[in-house]
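To the team - iron/sulfur cluster complex, inputs and output below.
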Amino acid sequence: MKIRLARHMGLCFGVKDAIQLAEERAHHGPTTILGPLAHNQTIQQRLTKRGVAFVERHQDANTRDLIITAHGISNHTRQSVQDAGFNIRDATCPLVHFAHRTLHSLVQDGFYPVIIGKRDHIEVRGLTGDLRTFSIVEEASDIDEIPHVPRIGIVSQTTQPIERVRAWVQQIEDRFPDSKVCFKDTVCQPTKQRQSAALDLGRSCDVVIVIGGKNSNNTHQLTETVSRHCERVHQIERVADLDPDWFFSTDEVGVTAGTSTPGEVVRPILERLTEWARSSREPALLIESSATGARTPLSPLF
Ligand code: SF4
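Output:
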């Protein structure tokens, strides 16, 4: 059994920077994070142990410091937080800021805003928080609810799979042939890279393990993408979720992880898989890049 790692996987720079900021602030004194910093229990537990509090509403925070997560917030919420006297420590990812700016400039140019993404996700709530009217497309059927207007401006949540976003934009254009439809691509580069690397795994591996939190949107999207080409895909949160029966009669196992999954979660899973691969009597290999075909022994990594 061989192990193939996705070319791009795991924590993105936006989540890494947000974790680093939270750890720094915790070092200086009590701090609170507004909403989930990353959709991953390990990260949340680690920060909680360091004295960081998490609240859903700023009204429930008991510290002067309040950290805005990588997912961002609306200007309206930001103003309320400032008015309440908090010191805002902003970890909003620059690529989420870009999505906000893009959406607002579409609205300023007279386009009716349409956001492709998860209705209840914190990032989408932030994107829509300053808008009076808008439509959210979470399922293809939501396209039927978009009103007939002359100008439609579309952005997407940063972690949506770009192929599906493009397909839905096409459906919107088909439904409104007389409207001017303007699509601005706000899916972030780390998401695109992880999606395309996951697709490669799905096409070439017998079994694929996707590592990430149950409530992590981008991890679910990776699982969905892999499952289009590979029937034996398993999304897991921790090493204890691995089941040896999944690897019966398996030549190659692919491994990927969502943008909110830290290395400390991935490492023990790779170690366990390596143990099993070694016991299969074939040398375990790490294939870092399916594009170059480069193969590196797995052991030096640990
Ligand atoms: S997933 Fe993309 S937009 Fe979100 S924090 Fe990471 S890099 Fe930024």
